[in-house]
Design brief:
The chain is α+β, with helices and mostly antiparallel strands. The protein contains three helices and seven strands; from the N terminus they run E-H-E-E-E-H-E-H-E-E. The structure holds coenzyme A.
């Protein structure tokens, strides 16, 4: 049900969930086209209904030299609360661990999604901040070997 997909294939779900009413170009994220970026999609039949992207990116808040950033985690409204978010998160963790068991995974979490990530051992750090035109976010992370 989960497959590696291209950056372009993430855009319809990103747009509907994360950038509703905004132009498709706002659904392109920096790092999308890098070789070591991983895009995952969950399919229901022919359609992608949930996506997540993992980009090799360091955040100066952390000393670990091996860092990935989770971006664009999005599940279509009609498919929420069916563990698709969980599946994408755990599959991403598995792939990253296989790449390198010392990876720290971090991301800017929407405040409304913090409780979701906490269920899987992620911790918040620092103050909440506004991403313009989007909403309040806070940095979350998980260190190896918990990842
Ligand atoms: C946040 C999101 C990715 C969760 O995906 P989902 O497929 O609906 O979640 P799951 O079904 O995998 O939920 C797993 C667990 O987390 C809980 N959970 C889901 N969303 C939650 C939330 N926003 N806050 C707190 N807990 C949440 C579920 O109740 C479930 O708990 P349980 O195991 O005790 O039953 C999804 O709601 C979404 O796309 N939201 C809008 C966009 C967004 O906020 N993306 C994250 C950007 S950082």
């Amino acid at each position: 049900m989960i497959r590696k997909i291209t950056a372009e294939e993430t855009y319809p779900v990103r747009q509907e969930v994360l950038r509703p009413g905004r132009p498709l170009k706002e659904c392109f994220f920096e790092g999308d086209l890098e070789e070591d970026t991983i895009h995952l999609g969950y399919f229901d039949g022919e359609n992608f209904v949930a996506v997540a992207t993992y980009v090799a990116r360091k955040n100066a808040l952390f000393e670990n030299p091996n860092q990935y950033q989770l971006r664009g985690m999005a599940v279509l409204d009609a498919y929420r609360q069916k563990k698709l978010g969980q599946k994408l998160l755990l599959e991403g963790e598995k792939l990253l661990k296989k790449k390198n068991p010392n990876i720290l995974l971090w991301f800017n979490a929407r405040e409304t999604a913090v409780g979701f990530y906490e269920k899987y051992g992620y911790k918040t750090t620092g103050p909440a901040f506004m991403i313009p035109n989007v909403c309040m976010h806070i940095v979350m992370y998980k260190n190896p070997p918990e990842l």
